[in-house]
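Why should sequence recovery work at all? Because a backbone constrains its sequence more than one might expect. Tight turns favour small or flexible residues, buried strands favour hydrophobic ones, and helices have their own preferences. The token representation captures these environments compactly. In the example below, the structure is given first.
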């Protein structure tokens, strides 16, 4: 029993020190004059912009707009979680493309896919 308690305490001590080392790394300082604060859009605002672009290209019902808003909000949350991993981002892009394809009819999907800039904007 004593060995088990010692093992758990060592495990948590090592984990806590690793977390402390991550938090202590200083962030790179940027000159204040060079930084121009662009308004950051929330995931919901980005998703609504994607839905508006899609709706301008092919008309969507209110129900489809709500579905796509939820899909694109999820996309942006997943992309934030992916960090710098290009493989993860490519997988997310593929999944979003498949979900768009499943949500609309084949003719509309081919129309969207033929518009390369819109398709890239929606999936990436």
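From this structural description, the recovered sequence reads:
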């Amino acid at each position: 029993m004593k060995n088990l308690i010692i093992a758990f305490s060592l495990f948590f001590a090592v984990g806590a020190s690793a977390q402390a080392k991550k938090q202590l790394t200083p962030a790179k300082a940027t000159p204040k004059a060079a930084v121009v604060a662009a308004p950051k859009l929330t995931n919901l605002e980005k998703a609504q912009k994607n839905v508006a672009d899609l709706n301008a290209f092919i008309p969507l019902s209110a129900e489809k707009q709500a579905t796509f808003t939820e899909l694109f909000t999820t996309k942006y949350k997943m992309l934030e979680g992916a960090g710098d991993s290009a493989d993860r981002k490519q997988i997310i892009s593929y999944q979003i493309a498949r979900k768009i394809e499943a949500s609309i009819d084949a003719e509309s999907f081919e129309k969207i896919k033929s518009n390369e800039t819109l398709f890239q904007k929606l999936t990436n």
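A few observations help interpret the result. The longest helix spans residues 2-24.
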